[in-house]
Amino acid sequence: MFASLWDIDHSVDKLNSDPYNKSERRSVNILIGITILMDEPVRKRGRPRVLDRDVGLDIAARLFWERGYEGTSTADLTKAMGINPPTLYSTFGSKEELYRQALDFSIARENSRRSEILQSNLPVYEALSRYLYDIADGDTQPDKPRGCLVSTAVLQHAEENASVARMTAALREASMQVLKSRFDRAITEGELPAETDTDTLARFYGAIIQGMSAQACDGACNALLKRLIDIALTAWPGMRQTSTGNSD
């Protein structure tokens, strides 16, 4: 049983008045230190937080969307996820790898619905219209960052982030190839003239998609983006048929 602090203080006062009791004073000082440590609450060492992978990817995607790749630091990511850097690296590998996984996660979530629209049996003109309108809705969601995570991502970048820029450029190219494939199918099904340059047509609507993302980031509203789509659709070179059988 340790002595009380009052008893120790009293002993110290007595010893301090006696210059010949140096060794005893040292012993009392040690005892004071031990008593103070015993009075402090014991801090338990907790386990590192276990992060749900999908939750982490969702958080990362939103941060990258809001701030861009270069504007998002590792410290930003770990703080938002509530984890430490070693946990981030052991779970995702690196910031670049986390970015790639976050893009894949976001694309899978958004593109499943859009892919169904584009690849449906709707007339190609109507499918394209719905596809573009859905993108405009995504660019202007009130509870999410403006624009698209991929469409305008890493267009300008530092040299050390060139691989990240190539990755996002490849994703944009892939989306245009999806459009081209749908337009090629429309030629086969007689909805587009056989001589249609489907690659250029896909890049035209790809440019509309990227432009909508940029304008949404600058504050363009949903209605304005849809008016842009309506004008872009006037360039459609084939039949403007809808599922109701109407055509423009």
Automatic annotation (TrEMBL):
Q: Where is the HTH tetR-type domain?
A: 50-110
What the entry lists under InterPro entries is as follows: Homeodomain-like_sf, HTH_TetR, Tet_transcr_reg_TetR-rel_C_sf, TetR_C
Residue ranges forming the DNA-binding region read 73-92
Q: Which GO terms describe its molecular function?
A: DNA binding
Residues of the signal peptide: none
Which chain regions cross the lipid bilayer?
A: none
Q: Which SUPFAM superfamilies match?
A: Homeodomain-like, Tetracyclin repressor-like, C-terminal domain
Q: Which keywords has UniProt assigned to this entry?
A: DNA-binding, Transcription, Transcription regulation
The entry's protein name is AcrR family transcriptional regulator
User: What organism does the record attribute this protein to?
Assistant: Rhizobium pisi
